[in-house]
Amino acid sequence: xxxxxxxxxxxxxxxxxxxxxxxxxxxxxxxxxxxxxxxxxxxxxxxxxxxxxxxxxxxxxxxxxxxxxxxxxxxxxxxxxxxxxxxxxxxxxxxxxxxxxxxxxxxxxxxxxxxxxxxxxxxxxxxxxxxxxxxxxxxxxxxxxxxxxxxxxxxxxxxxxxxxxxxxxxxxxxxxxxxxxxxxxxxxxxxxxxxxxxxxxxxxxxxxxxxxxxxxxxxxxxxxxxxxxxxxxxxxxxxxxxxxxxxxxxxxxxxxxxxx
Amino acid sequence: xxxxxxxxxxxxxxxxxxxxxxxxxxxxxxxxxxxxxxxxxxxxxxxxxxxxxxxxxxxxxxxxxxxxxxxxxxxxxxxxxxxxxxxxxxxxxxxxxxxxxxxxxxxxxxxxxxxxxxxxxxxxxxxxxxxxxxxxxxxxxxxxxxxxxxxxxxxxxxxxxxxxxxxxxxxxxxxxxxxxxxxxxxxxxxxxxxxxxxxxxxxxxxxxxxxxxxxxxxxxxxxxxxxxxxxxxxxxxxxxxxxxxxxxxxxxxxxxxxxx
Lengths: 260, 260
Prior knowledge:
The complex is a heterodimer of chains A (260) and B (260).
Chain A: H1 2-31, H2 37-40, H3 44-89, H4 91-104, H5 109-120, H6 123-148, H7 152-160, H8 165-203, H9 208-216, H10 225-250
Helix pairs in contact in A: 3-4, 3-6, 3-8, 3-9, 3-10, 5-6, 6-8, 8-9, 8-10, 9-10
Chain B: E1 7-19, E2 25-37, E3 41-45, H1 52-60, E4 67-72, H2 77-82, E5 86-89, H3 101-111, H4 116-129, H5 145-157, E6 163-167, H6 175-192, E7 195-200, H7 203-209, E8 212-216, E9 223-228, H8 239-259
Parallel strand pairs in B: 3-7, 3-8, 5-6, 6-7
Antiparallel strand pairs in B: 1-2, 1-4, 8-9
Helix pairs in contact in B: 3-4, 3-5, 4-5, 7-8
C-alpha cells in the first residue's frame, strides 16, 4: 500500500515536471521566438532524440565518472570507518580531532584540486582522492555516532562474559553501528558522484562532467549537453538507491556475525 | 562441580564511594560484610539507591570497591570473571538484536572460542531448559519480554558458571510472566545447585525465591539484616510466608519513620 502511494505521488510530480518543462520550451521557441531556445530549454523530445544519437558517448563517459566516484567512495568509506574506530578508542583524541575534521570539509573542491594534484602528480589518483576526501566525513561522523550510541548495558554484558576489547568491537560495536554507517553512505554516495563530476570539469580529459563543460562552451556536439545533465542527475539518484539496496540486502538478516 | 561446601563469595568490610564531578563523595556501601555459601540463593533486597546493584557489580568485577576485601572461590572478582565463574542476567535482557536467539545464547561460548558445533549443542541444551527450543531461529524483536528474559537466563547458563548473578531480572515483567519465571529459576537452581545472587526491590519475590535475604536500606549504606528463609519449596502464600514478608517489611518501616 505504502509503496503504491509513493509511486503515485512520484508519477504525479514527474508528469507535472514534464508539462511545465514542455510549456516553457514551447513558449520560448514558438511564442517568443528566442533564437537560443534550443540551448536554454529544449523540448524533451529533442533531448531524447539527441540522447539516442549520442548515448554511447554519454554512457561511456558516465561510466568513467562513476568508476572514479566508486573508487573514491570505497577509499573514503574505509578511511572514515578506521577514523571513527580510532576516535572511539580515545575520547581525548575525539575532542582534539573532530573540530579539524569539520574544518577540513570547509575547503572547497575547487581549491582542493590543485593541492591534490600537487600531492599525487597524477590526474586519475587526484580524481579518486577528491571523491574520497568529500565522502569520508559523513561516513566517519555517522559511524562514530553509532559507536557512541551502543547502550552501556550491552557493554557490561560483553565484559561480564569475558569479552576482550577487540571482541567487543567485532561482535558488538561494529555490528551495532552498521545501520549508522549506511545512513552516512546515503549522504556520501551522491556526494561522491557530484565530486567526481566536478573533478571531471577541472583538468581531466574525460568523464561526464567534461562532456558537460565542453559542450557548454560551444565545442563538441551541442546535442550532448542536456542528455549529459540528465544522466548526471540520475547517477546521483541511482547511487542513493544503490546504497539503500545494499542495506536492504545486508541488514534485515541482521548480518550474521558468526564466523569459524 | 567443585567446592560445594564453604564460602562461594566472601565480602569483608567493603566500602564504595562514588564521586561526582565536583569531587564530592557519596558513600553507597559502608563497611559491608557478607558471606555467601556455595549453593545459596541470596537476595539483595532494598529500594532503589540502596547500593544493592553496586554490590552486585562489585561481585561481578564490573565495579571497583573503594576499600575492603572480596574473594570469589579464593579469586579476585576480575579473575573469577575471566575464568567464567559468573553467569549474569540483566534487568534489561541485553540481547543483540541482529542475532537469532540461538546465536545470542552462543555468544559467551563464542567469546571463549568454543568450536561452533560444540557451542550450538550446549546452547540448544540450555534453550530447552528454559523451554525456548522452538524459537531458536527467531530474532529478539519477535519475542515477548518474558521470553527475552528466558533467553538471557539460557545465555547466562551456557558457560556452566558456578555463580549466577541476577540484577532485577524480573522487575520489568508482568505478574503472570513473573510467576512462571520464578518456577523456572527455582527449578534450574535446584537442578544445578548453583550459587545465585539475586538483586530485587520486591519483598515477595525475595521471600518466594531465596534462602537468605540481605535487607539493605537507603540511608545506612549497610546491610540492615540477613534474614534466613527456611520455608520449604515450593513456597505458597501461607501464614509462614506472610509472616516472613511482614518481618522484613518492619525493618524498612523502622527506616521510613526515622526519615520523617
